[in-house]
User: Fold this.
Amino acid sequence: MNFDAFLFQSFGGPNQESDIIPFLENVTRGRNVPRERLELVAQQYRMLGGQSPINEINRDLIRRVQGAFGERGIELPIYFGNRNFTPYVADALEQMRADGKKRAIAFVTSAFGSYSGCRQYKIDVELARQKMGPDAPEVVKIRHYYSHPGFIGPLVSNSVGALKNLPDPGGAEFVFTAHSIPSSMAETSPYLRQLERAVELVLKGIRESTGVTFPYSLAFQSRSGPPTQEWLAPDVSYQLASLAAKGVRNVVVVPISFVSDHMEVIYDLDTLAAKTARYLGISMARVRTSSDSPEFVEMIVDLTMELLDPSRKPKSLGDSNDLNGCTETCCPMHP
Assistant:
């Protein structure tokens, strides 16, 4: 298939302290979140100097991907567009049009299928294209990559490495964490199914590397909905308390649904969950995410080549019949 550009899509984040509230207003638009709640969340960003780690992580990843494209002879300039803050996806598409680009491959920094992790990124693109008119560049999104070896492999090696940071690695229990979403959203998306499959693949890799079958559980984090709304549970801190009550004292936490060590990993796990673990007397080791590994960059190159050459066999650890998971009716917007 003919493509002449590459669109790197991500969530976005503040670049400086004055950006924090405008960014949070973008994230929560239409959800009637009180200003007091925004100020509370803003404190998390101020702890890191007023900026989100995701910005430099993404810029570094783009540089690495562009270099890998050059090594492979892939002549696609990379455009960067966010959902919630500059540079916006609409700005990226406008620049594409100004540069004469007609058709782009889009990579999203979310490995799983859900409304917020997949469809909303597609909607962002379509809304921008509608405003641009008939000469707007076409955009084709890369498939879900939750089972790709470039995503799973680094989590396996990082998990094995994290075990060494515990006083009793052999007695460790693994807690995989994922971003919580409303249960009603989970029922209409492949999110849970794909999460469970990814957890199985990481555990399989750990078992093959260590020879040990570790006990594990799946917990959730970063809930942002009202108490009256049912979201995926248990929360990671509740799960740690449950393990402590059973006598578990060594825990490896794997942020399975995140591709980089951004705010939700640094604050929700390295700050809140770590504080809970210390209070409970648990030694906790948090696993690094995948995006800083060479394998992750190679995965992006591989997924790009899948679209450039449709005859290319997709890479997947296991069943390759459900790689995308998208249907016409999946992942509707929650009321």
